[in-house]
Amino acid sequence: MAVNDIELLRRLKQGDTVAFDHIYDLYYKPICFFSEKILTNQLLAEDIATESFVKLLQKNPEFDTIQQLRSFLYRTAKNACIDELRSQKRHLQSHEEIRSISPVAEDVIEKALITAELLQFIYLEIEKLPERYRNVVRLALVEGMENEEIVERTGLANQTVRNHKAEGIKLLRLSLLHNRGVSPILLLCILSFLSEKNL
Amino acid sequence: MNEQIFHLTDLVKRKIRGELTESEHHELDSLLNKSALAREAIEQLSNELILKEGLEKLNGYDLEKNRAYLKQILYDRILAASEHVPKEVVMPVKRLWWRRMTIAATVAGVLLLAHFLFNKESQYPASKPAGSNHMVQDVPAPDKNRAQIKLSDGSILYLDNAGNGSVAEQAGVEIIKMADGRIEYIVDDGASSEAVTALVYNTLENPNGSKVIDMQLADGSHVWLNAGSSLRYPVRFSGQQRKVLITGEAYFEVSKNEKAPFVVDVNGTSIQVLGTHFNVNAYQEEGVVRTTLLEGAVKVSRNGAELKLVPGEQAAEKNGVLTAVKEVNLEQVMAWKNGSFYFDDVDIETVLREVARWYDIEVVYAGKIPEGHYRGKPSRSLSLTQILKVIEYSGVKFKLEDKKLTILSNG
Lengths: 199, 411
Known about the structure:
The complex is a heterodimer.
Chain A: H1 3-14, H2 17-39, H3 42-59, H4 66-89, H5 95-100, H6 106-128, H7 131-142, H8 147-154, H9 158-172, H10 184-197
Chain B: H1 3-16, H2 22-34, H3 36-45, H4 48-60, H5 67-81, H6 96-108, H7 115-119, E1 148-150, E2 156-158, E3 165-170, E4 173-177, E5 183-187, E6 201-206, E7 213-216, E8 222-225, E9 229-234, E10 242-253, E11 262-266, E12 269-273, E13 277-282, E14 289-295, E15 298-302, E16 305-309, E17 314-318, E18 321-325, H8 330-334, E19 343-347, H9 348-359, E20 362-365, E21 373-376, H10 384-393, E22 396-401, E23 404-410
Parallel strand pairs in B: 5-7, 10-11, 20-23
Antiparallel strand pairs in B: 1-2, 1-6, 3-4, 4-5, 6-9, 7-8, 8-10, 9-10, 10-13, 11-12, 12-15, 13-14, 14-17, 15-16, 17-18, 19-21, 22-23
């Protein structure tokens, strides 16, 4: 593990507010996303994400790696989501059923986890793009703007917007998202995605 | 949810960055071959529409909505960790006539008027009167400002260490420390304004036991921050709103700008103004967010409910519910900024919460919380033992050591 991470965990343990901010900035949004995928309710999801950080602060566990801390946050959020779903279903089922049946499929949870983690990764990668591409890519992918809106917002020429967007997305190397052993149908989807990018 | 899912996700991230070794490539391939679910999740992100939808969703979560709440929990934890094991302390034998007075007050069930005690500070010199040696060491009133600014890169600027003049530069904005300790953000007009699209945030934190700090933001608005409070603000405002976040207590004199309303966000309550003077008291431990208007107009909203205030009115938010308070004692609300406490028929806990913030002490109650009410306007420049005289004379026993005040019981 990087020296930086060890130092970060040490400071967090001591109650350093800057270290806490850093961890919070890294994980709050993806944990909101993860919880909302399970609960399909944004306000509840934000509450659960916040409570996960409350538990982190109150328990203040010892972590050897930043990955352990991440697991702790996701696991705490997952358990809270399951509790929430159980309490929502309580009036429909007997206690026996509640205890024996998980209210949400493990598949849903795992998929939510992968999606949340990768989205946050891409979100942060966009911020690392060279400045000239970053703004356009951000407006296009994160703020969901059409090319014309970006032209209006930035004052750049239409062709420049297209070029910056295409170049920026190429730098993100998202094409690598698909696996090498990919099926022909999926490959078609990806190719159409890529060609769309290079308009 | 097993660790392998995390491992797989981390491999995908490193693949996108081009950091995978050949053997890790094989590992990822075999993991993906085993998990149709992971393949599906990853392939879905290859679809631009799904990717955009996800990124927009992610971006929409407000990082600031609950940050202050979490910070408060962190501060509480730090405070709790600084406890020391108390030593035995001898309580003084109180003079009898004080005792009688206290008993009379208690029996009659009336509030204890400590007003005259508080107001005659000359009567209580800083040196300890005979017989009150239970206070191991006095805690002086805050004599300087110990505020710090967290800059956009996460580094911290300690204002008490900084000399006067320019102390930092943030996104073309100079941070100046004036001779009187005031902090000003000065926008360099020469800097190109189009370069600035994203907001760059700084956070001013004024800890407990620190003097009130006065700051002028880049738009010319003035903010005074009480002890135990924080303010998060963009170094330079842009867009259609001027939005800042606070915890604790602050007084604002907002410069007029009809085009960009000034918005104060405080733990879910939003205060919107155009240009005006108002005070916000939002200490977590008080349980109520009080917005008091002195001049102009403000709109306070919470959970869809709205209150428009006229000068002299207050909006009180408790447990998510807004209530209007029509008759407000402005002298009381503004006492902190004018250098005094102002207690008007309040219980000992209310008095000591405010005292704790100002002197940066911890207050614990060893037994039943003493009854009785206090009234008075003591100066904030008194030392802690001078303030505690009143508590002592009301018959409450306590001990003070290592900045920890333990209230023992009624006398």
